[in-house]
């Protein structure tokens, strides 16, 4: 578990979130599931069971940093667009975002005042095929002129993270999520959107995966934490 600190650029207000990134490794921890979660879990196929259980485990583990509670008393329900929603009176003021690849899983919990979407993507070759015809010429030139590697992966992940903030998922036309600015920061990219100027994405490469945080544009990330994420020293 890691504290993730965001700072409001104008007011100086500090927001502490809890974040983690790890391997899928909790296949036997069904005792952490709420009774309704367990019923749902038992009807899943084996591959989906792994990601479902890992996701619930990770979110509930992060919630222990707020107020310790027995995990099986916490229910993580699916929202209308399949987003995870925390159900427990102790965590009324907290929300979460979750993402995974075939190997790893990541989650963040954050105060209700914020809006944050997280996304994790891997497999650049598959992403190049998936994004064919979806990336605009301007976006491609923007990446090439900035010397950005794995740009298909990073653009897709940024848009996926934004879609979680606006709570649509990738059900909207992909062009609506067009990126119009990319800046290189100290170890990560800052990505801005043509039609959603109120949001930005912080994009990190961790080994061969892309980790994206979509946050309000007024927030900045603590520099030490940005370096920690960039070096993948996540404990």
UniProtKB/TrEMBL annotation:
Quote any Pfam family the record assigns.
ACPS
Q: Where is the 4'-phosphopantetheinyl transferase domain?
A: 116-197
GO MF annotation, one: holo-[acyl-carrier-protein] synthase activity
User: SUPFAM superfamilies recorded for this chain?
Assistant: 4'-phosphopantetheinyl transferase
Q: Which UniProt keywords apply?
A: Transferase
Transferase is among the record's keywords: yes
Lineage: superkingdom? Bacteria
InterPro entries, alphabetized? 4-PPantetheinyl_Trfase_dom, 4-PPantetheinyl_Trfase_dom_sf
This protein is called: 4'-phosphopantetheinyl transferase domain-containing protein
Tell me the organism: Flammeovirga pacifica
